[in-house]
From TrEMBL:
Domain of life: Bacteria
Organism: Alkalicoccobacillus plakortidis
Pfam families: HTH_1, LysR_substrate
HTH lysR-type domain: residues covered: 1-58
Family indicated by similarity: Belongs to the LysR transcriptional regulatory family.
Keywords assigned: DNA-binding, Transcription, Transcription regulation
Name assigned to this protein: LysR family transcriptional regulator
Length: 301
């Protein structure tokens, strides 16, 4: 069997069209059709429904698709692994990170990594945890750094360090002079929150619901990045919950104030996550180890 047949089959499933797959692969439509006949003969099953206007996989095609993707990816990974070993190519690494890790820690890690491995090309994508894990599942990235819950068994996770999510306010806020507050007092002031799917927001509201007898907060304002929440809190629009990694500079410079709770601590692990592959890039483990080392060094006191 020719590996090219599997690549074309995957393109057809993804594009929904034989002609579109041919254009993507720079192959004529009749050639693509011929190769699909070869592939169906090889498996002894019809793999595609050729309807009017759109091509869809049969039940056998749906079963084959994830295996075909894995075979193609394993082949690509094997080429890269051999090339790395023989120093024939620049080592590239695609990293995904959730907002807190991506915005506040990845620049330091990448800079340190590039000083040690100047033959490497690291690309970082920053999105929410759910999107990053989906990209890892689809093998669009090699390695992920996220916070929050990870439910899939197809990914391998490793806890790197414990993060504290803390309550912060503007220095002029009435709470800024307090030694602590009670969680119930949160209802009295304006809550600046991340978007509902944010891992930071989910962990905060889960702690309040479970550990504070069902305390539920209604956001005054919802924002989709950590930086936006920081800016809103600094402007005096309300209070927010953020990773202590994300606000340590502002706290040190007097731009934000950490307000402790009397009886509540919100913590979560930072995870490094990979999808187990037959051929794994050696650079992945190297980057993981450096990230964990630097996270410990950067940990706020």
């Amino acid at each position: 069997m020719n590996l090219r047949w599997l690549e074309l089959f995957c393109l057809i499933v993804e594009e929904g069209s034989i002609s579109a797959a041919g254009r993507s692969a720079y192959i004529s439509q009749p050639s693509v059709t011929k190769y699909m006949h070869y592939l169906e003969e090889h498996y002894g099953a019809m793999l595609l429904h050729r309807g009017s206007g759109k091509v869809t996989p049969t039940e056998a095609g749906r079963v084959l698709y994830p295996h075909a993707k894995a075979i193609i990816q394993d082949y690509q990974n094997s080429l890269e692994s051999v090339a790395f070993t023989d120093h024939k190519t620049k080592r590239d690494l695609k990293v995904g990170a959730s907002f807190t890790l991506g915005e506040y820690m990845m620049p330091t890690v990448v800079a340190a990594f590039n000083q040690i491995h100047d033959d490497s090309d690291v690309q970082v994508t920053i999105q929410n945890t759910r999107t990053i894990l989906k990209m890892l599942e689809d093998q669009q990235i090699d390695l992920a750094f996220v916070e929050g819950e990870i439910h899939t068994d197809s990914l391998r996770k490793q806890a790197m360090i414990e993060d504290k999510v803390i309550l912060v306010v503007n220095p002029t806020h009435p709470w800024s002079k307090r030694t602590h507050i009670l969680p119930q007092e949160l209802r009295e002031e304006r809550y600046i929150a991340r978007e509902p799917k944010s891992s930071t927001r989910i962990i905060v509201e889960k702690h309040l619901m479970v550990k504070q007898a069902g305390l539920k907060l209604e956001p005054h304002l919802q924002l989709n990045t950590t930086q936006a929440v920081k800016s809103a809190v600094q402007s005096g629009l309300g209070y927010g919950f953020l990773s202590h990694y994300a606000v340590q500079q502002e706290i040190q410079n007097g731009l934000l104030v950490h307000v402790p709770f009397a009886n509540l601590s919100i913590t979560r692990p930072f995870w490094s996550v990979v999808k187990p592959l037959r051929f794994e890039k050696p650079i992945v483990e190297t980057f993981q180890q450096l990230t964990q080392q630097l996270l410990k060094e950067l940990e706020p006191t």
